[in-house]
């Protein structure tokens, strides 16, 4: 594709007890505009996505691309309303049950392919619902593995091989294990699923540059996340969804293939609402640059870091992650109570102004 004339990326505020992701994108290349939606938050968030596109994107006839990054309800559920109420040209998402022929021999407790397909669809109901809507409406569904081109964006992660590994891993630690437990107890999946409450961490005062992240990484489901990169108006953009350290390492490994020199991201979506288990000092150094030796006197200007976090979610973002963004010269923005628009050369928008960045926390989790 040619050089973009403008872009605008809106990180909508998903206000619930737990954080969620809903991102709308409009960009223009050679006088042709494209609309691209990445996740839709919770089911009720879908209305907000539709209203935003109608109000600020000149109510386009069609949405060019809809991307469901991974099966979690705080990302995928709202896309049901988008597919049901707008004309969508392309849906991008990965469906675990398409690969049962390749992976069933790696499952300890499944030998029947039909049972495994059923378990996967029950484990990931939001993906199954999107598939059903798309098939009913004749919307093409595309795989979103590393190297796929989604308009101006390129998928950086996951690789197909690692995605299949994450499906198998989820039998032991994730949704599939919960499905099997529900079957054994004669209950519905909704009865058996519980929310994992993040453990409260003690805050300790820390010097500039100090960073502490847990050894344990994020879940298999989060590591399934589709990570997208684009170069628009000379700005490098990385949308990470809930990916973890494995996905970020794939970004680093694949960057030369798309002409991306790292470190060097201008717009960075902080993974998983600012969770500590998704990043590491080493990976942030590679992607965003090494830590500055001293605290800047003003808000960071090297790049913009955006965190999709809800005001009522006391677990996100973590101080350690906000600090890590500041350490590398970022202006850190959060969607708590507001939508965040980042753009270059886009049309003026009445009532929107520059957002104030999050302050640097002097304390971090121990």
Structure description:
The radius of gyration is 20 Å and the shape is globular. The chain has 366 residues and is of the alpha/beta class. The model is unreliable at 193-197 (pLDDT under 50). The protein starts with a strand and ends with a strand. Helix content is 30%, strand content 22%. Helix 1 (45-56) packs across helix 3 (79-85), helix 3 packs parallel to helix 6 and helix 5 (113-123) packs across helix 8 (175-185). The relative contact order is 0.15. The strands form three sheets. A seven-stranded mixed beta sheet has the order 6-5-4-3-2-1-15. A seven-stranded mixed beta sheet has the order 7-8-10-11-12-13-14. It has helices spanning 45-56, 73-76, 79-85, 100-103, 113-123, 125-137, 160-173, 175-185, 189-192, 220-223, 245-254, 281-288, 319-327, and strands at residues 4-11, 22-29, 32-40, 62-67, 87-92, 141-142, 149-150, 153-157, 203-205, 227-232, 235-239, 267-269, 303-307, 330-334, 340-344, 363-365. Strand 2 and strand 3 (32-40) form a beta hairpin. It contains 13 helices and 16 strands.
């Amino acid at each position: 594709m040619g050089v973009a004339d403008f872009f605008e990326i809106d990180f909508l505020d998903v206000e619930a007890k737990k954080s969620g992701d809903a991102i709308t994108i409009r960009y223009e290349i050679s006088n042709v505009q494209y609309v691209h939606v990445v996740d839709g938050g919770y089911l009720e968030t879908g209305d907000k996505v539709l209203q935003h596109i109608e109000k600020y994107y000149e109510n386009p006839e069609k949405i060019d691309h809809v991307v469901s990054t991974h099966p979690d309800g705080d990302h995928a559920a709202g896309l049901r309303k988008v597919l049901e109420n707008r004309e969508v040209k392309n849906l991008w998402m990965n469906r675990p049950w398409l690969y049962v022929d390749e992976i069933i021999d790696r499952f300890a407790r499944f030998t029947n392919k039909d049972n495994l397909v059923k378990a996967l669809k029950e484990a990931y109901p939001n993906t199954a619902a999107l598939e059903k809507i798309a098939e009913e409406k004749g919307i093409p569904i595309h795989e979103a593995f590393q190297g796929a081109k989604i308009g101006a964006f390129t998928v950086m992660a996951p690789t197909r091989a690692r995605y299949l590994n994450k499906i198998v891993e989820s039998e032991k630690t994730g949704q599939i294990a919960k499905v099997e437990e529900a079957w054994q107890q004669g209950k519905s999946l909704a009865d058996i699923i519980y929310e994992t409450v993040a453990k409260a961490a003690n805050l300790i005062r820390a010097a500039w540059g100090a960073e502490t992240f847990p050894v344990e990484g994020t879940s298999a489901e989060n590591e399934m996340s589709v990570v997208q990169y684009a170069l628009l108006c000379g700005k490098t953009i990385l949308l990470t969804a809930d990916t973890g350290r494995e996905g970020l390492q794939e970004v680093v490994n694949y960057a030369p293939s798309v002409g991306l020199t790292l470190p060097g991201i201008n717009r960075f979506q902080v993974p998983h609402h600012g969770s500590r288990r998704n990043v590491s000092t080493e990976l942030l150094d590679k992607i965003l640059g090494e830590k500055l030796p001293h605290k800047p006197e003003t808000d960071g200007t090297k790049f913009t870091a955006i965190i999709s976090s809800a005001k009522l979610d006391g677990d996100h973002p973590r101080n350690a992650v906000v600090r890590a963004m500041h350490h590398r010269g970022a202006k850190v923005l959060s969607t708590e109570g507001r939508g965040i628009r980042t753009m270059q050369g886009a049309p003026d928008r009445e009532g929107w102004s520059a957002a104030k960045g999050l302050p640097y926390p002097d304390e971090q989790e121990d």
